[in-house]
């Protein structure tokens, strides 16, 4: 009986240190919303791809799309709830898991989305602060692309679900043709 009380007290103590918002993050708050009808091109940033964004996030924000030459990646931000980087990279999900497992500060819970996508939760050793992140390795027309959430941003489970919808909409951009020639 003491063992059960000890476990119950420990869990209660850990949860009392978490903010209400953090506990709410663990619950799915409905299915992801529909994507916008508008397709956003990333070709001006050097990536021959296009994607759609969650309509819910576009209601009060405009996508900011910039090329970060220091890191060789295109960064996309929509408000505080959507921030990803896309780069041409051969890094696999297995390698990302290995890197995360060697982290000395955080522990991670992997919520796999398949062989080429990873949905994961990071927690401090105290269990107080945790957040969600996502990574995907895409193969488009023989090129490998890595899509990752911004490592210093904190995302809820709902944010990541919406982000996954957007990432799953990524496809090669069709070349523009004028007068029978590619433009």
Task: Explain what the structure shows.
The protein is about 25% helix and about 35% strand. By secondary structure, it is of the alpha+beta class. It has one domain: Protein Transport Mog1p, Chain A. A hairpin with a 4-residue loop joins strand 3 and strand 4 (about 75-80). The longest helix is centred in the N-terminal third of the chain and has 15 residues, at about 1-15. The protein is globular. The chain starts with a helix and ends with a strand. Mean pLDDT is about 80; it is low at about 1-30.
**Tally of domains:** 1
Give the class from helix and strand content and strand pairing. alpha+beta
What is the CATH architecture term?
3-Layer(aba) Sandwich
Q: Give a quick account of the main beta sheet: strands, pairing sense, barrel closure.
A: 7 strands, antiparallel
- CATH fold-type name: Protein Transport Mog1p, Chain A
Number of strands: 12
CA-to-CA gap between the ends?
A: 75 Å
Please write the CATH class name.
Alpha Beta
Q: Uncertain runs with pLDDT below 50, 5 residues or more?
A: 1-30
Placed side by side, the strands forming the largest sheet appear as 3-4-5-9-8-7-6
Rg, rounded, reads 19 Å
Percentage of residues in strands: 25-35%
Tally of helical segments? 5
List the secondary-structure elements in sequence, H or E: HHEEHEEEHEEEEHEEE
> What's the average pLDDT?
79
The coarse silhouette is globular
Helix content: 25-40%
